[in-house]
Amino acid sequence: MKKLRKNVYMVCGFNTISLGTGRKEFHPKKPRPGLEQYIQEAGKGVIAQIPSASLVDECVISNFMAARFCRQGNLAALMPTIDPSLEFKPSTRVEGACGSGGLALYTGVKSVLAETADVVLALGVEVQNTVKAIYGADYLALAGHYATERKSGHAYFFPAKFSDRAGAYAQKYGRDRTRQAMAHWYVQAIEHARKCPKAQEHHNETKDLLAAGMTTPNPAAFVEELNFFDCSKVSDGASAILICSEEGLVRLGIPKEKAVLVRGIGQAQADLTKGPRDLTELTTSKEAVRKAVEMAGVAVKHLGVLEVHDCFTITGLLALEAIGVVPPGEAIDYVIAGKTRIGSELPTNCTGGLIGFGHPTGASGVRMAVDLWSQLTRQAGDCQANLAADRSLGLMVSMGGNDKTTSAVVVQQAS
Amino acid sequence: MDIFERLENVTIVGAAGKMGSGIAFLLAVQMAKRKLSPEGREKTYQLNLIDTNPAGLQNLVGYVRDQTVKVAEKSIVELRNLYRERTDLVENTEIVEAFVDEVGRLLMPTTAIEGAASSGMVFEAIIEDEKIKIDLYRKLQKMCSEEAFFFTNTSSIPITTLDKKARLDGRLIGYHFYNPPPVQKLVELITHGHTRPELVEAAKQLGKLLGKKLIPSNDIAGFIGNGHFIRDGLHAIAEVERLTKQGRSFAEAAYMVNRVSQDFMIRPMGIFQLIDYVGVDVFSSILKVMHRYIPGAGLKSEVIGKLVEKKVLGGQFSGGAQKDGILKYEKGAPAGVFDLTEGAYVAFDRSGPEAWTSRADRELGPTPEGWQAWKKMVGNPRKDEALRAYFQTLWSQDTRGADLARSYLKRSAEIAQNLVKAGVAASVEDVNGVLLNGFYHAYGAVTDLIPGLPA
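Above: the input entities. Below: the structure tokens describing the complete assembly.
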């Protein structure tokens, strides 16, 4: 499909708080909301923006690992708990590890294109603080290939996978500069998150963020090339958004300028049983972006705001290169120069990204869509970026596993 | 017999007690890791946990299990490596469970002392009573092999006495863990003229294995740790008596000295809270031992005697919570103080400016400028600078609190210097090392951070 066969819009987004260490209200031993509460909070947050839940035709729910974190499967059947009128409507659960949210968007768009729905409620959720990080690492490792990778893998499986990428990148482009760029990415993530009241790092008061980001990794306790600040944290949260046809918007009584138009969408899947082709490149993400940008018929220079999947600081750098913002190796200078900050050349992850906002894994892709929607419709509050007329597009890339399941979406404000 | 051979069969007598439990856990973990190493794979490891209290032994097994889970989680990177050839163990969960099982298999809890017979190392952490310890060592001497080494956790009784009376012939060493052993880095290593050199070597290797900091002490009752602590406590009691003579109630005086020793002196807890933590009765029995071996040095206290008589004992409940002692506790924090004259607890009262605790606080005066709570101070990256500035102002301030703190600090330094003079410690650095690592002080007793201390 070279271009979308009809207009598809996204509107009425809602994010819950990303809860976990760092939030003042978080205490590991005190009771917290669970999976169902998050689904309901995000779902109701969307429904509150439309006349009635009965106007929703279909639901998609993305989640990675509730079966282990929360001992709950069959999540599509939890969507009717948002509102009784959702009972007996179609509902689908999608899973692609940390890229699940991207799949929810993709699935919703396809339903609208297939004309089986005019209003789709896409919701992503993950609750991970139910177990200690070391056991959570087991569950998250299932995004890798269990049979060939897990036994030989590290206790902290994914940090080690991306540590390998950081090591390869550092070797190729310079160790000191890579470390500095990763530290600068961390600083930006926290400073953006401080502007967003729902971000997990909103309460972060660390004075010298750069010094924290520069902490020397300790492989005896963690991994070779990453420190704790290089990693997104363990998060609980949910995000939801409506995916609509033009008829759907009319039905909801929502003016077009309140919505974003999907200009292009691309999904790319790599082979789970094979390692990355090139540790210094997110090859699959690159492919998803290529498809989305081609479908949109635009160039990277038209992008005014980005949402990238920075599960680790190094992934943030690699994502900029995969999108084509800069050539390979040049993300270092671009990030150190602060060009991805709000108010600079290409504001990226304006609510903090996975490191700053938080990473409720199965929700992150949907969260990105919500944040792009609020940016492009100028509802982003303190996180609002200035969008030049010739750079009015937003791009997001959602990624699952070690660059295995990827989705990219290009949006612009509808008119 | 090297240390690893000795690790194959170890005994802890008094294993169900607070110190014994901690030592048991530390050793069990090392033994299990050894079992997993290529050198240990074919061997059998056995940790005999001996205690007279069967219920205590059952609790101990649970305690070791819980602690092992935590340590396994923390050292998961190392454990995955130790288990790398076990293809059936894939996830962290499985590795942790396997290690907990490994540790569990080592444990042989029993009430029969005969369990110690084939051990290469025997740790003793029973009640601090010379006669009972000697009886035990006599039994052990008869049943154990001539190669067995003995490690006593006594904190006061001279090792020579125990060694001689049980005819251990230099096979007993003082190995004084601090409470709780899994957390506290310090072990006081007490040797005497006849300690076997191989035993000293084994003790050092073991210290390394357990990740402990060993500080040598000479074999004089109380050693360095209690040598300082007991005299420090006696100074506090003397101050209370002095303040009482000036017209304050016992409760007021004890409150003031406790607050000065915690806040004004930036220590982790006030002196009476520390005595309660150790146990007033334990403090009393150490005092008696020290008085017996070091007569004429004023190592006695009527106040302590009376407190014990009135069953004001402190110590901990089995769950670890603090029992009431000289202070009364609510949710682990001091909330009142025992008035020896009245024979009853008096709750802290800051309900108004004239309430007794408010008055006592007012009399002490504010903490000098630059003050930081102990926890903040030890975490301060520029701790020395901050302490030096703080003590400078403390020394120039004319308040009751500052005055009490100054004389307390001077006394603490004097005690440390006397320990060196008496040949207990080799240097003031060793005394400081004990205070920093065993008592978590933020600074040593003799330090140039404090102006005006006798050099």
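Note for the figure: The domain at 8-132+234-258 of chain A is CATH 3.40.47.10 (Peroxisomal Thiolase; Chain A, domain 1).
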